[in-house]
Every structure is written in C-alpha cells, then in structure tokens.
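Quick check before the chapter quiz. The format below is the same one you will see on the exam, so make sure you can read both the input and the output lines.
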Amino acid sequence: MNRLRMVACAIALAGLCSCRFIDAQPGAENIRVVDGSQVSECELAGTTTASVTDHVGFINRDPASIDEDLVTLARNSALKVGGDTIVPGERPKAGERRFSVYRCLK
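Here is the expected output.
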C-alpha cells in the first residue's frame, strides 16, 4: 500500500512539473515576442528579469513550461512600463531569464 501511495505522489508531482503557474494580465497577450533583429526601429523602454521555480520538490519542471511562465511574466512587466514588444535574452538558467522591453507599435 505504501508503494502505491509513493507511485501516486510521484505521478502527481510529475504532473505539476509540466503545469503553468503564472496568469497573464489583461492585455499581456498583445505583447509581441520577437528576436533582437526586429527591434532596430523601436524605442527601448527598459529591461526585466523574470524568475520562476524550476523544480517542484525533487522533480525538475518541464523546460517548455518554465519558458512559457517566464514569457508571461515578461509580458506582464512590459505592460507596466508601456512596452508592446519583448526580446528574450539568453536561455533560462535556474528558472531565470532577462528580457528587453521595447515600444515598437506607434
């Protein structure tokens, strides 16, 4: 019986590791995510560093879920500074990623 509980807990934790934990603020879905070559005509509004947990207990979260949460946080931050476009920095490390925020759409 204890073995069955342990297996059930492991499955539940694994399911949590692929879940998204961050909700987008209204309007965040309109923030564009582009690469650095597409912002040459834009005004830099600032930078933001997004950070989320990269593991639940002893299980690492799915990298795609981590990246999705980081982008959602960066979009939320872009709204606060009046940006409409974000450019991701280097790949996430330990659940953290830096983004540049731009005003591109006039």
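If your answer matched, good. Residues 7-18 have pLDDT under 50 and may be disordered.
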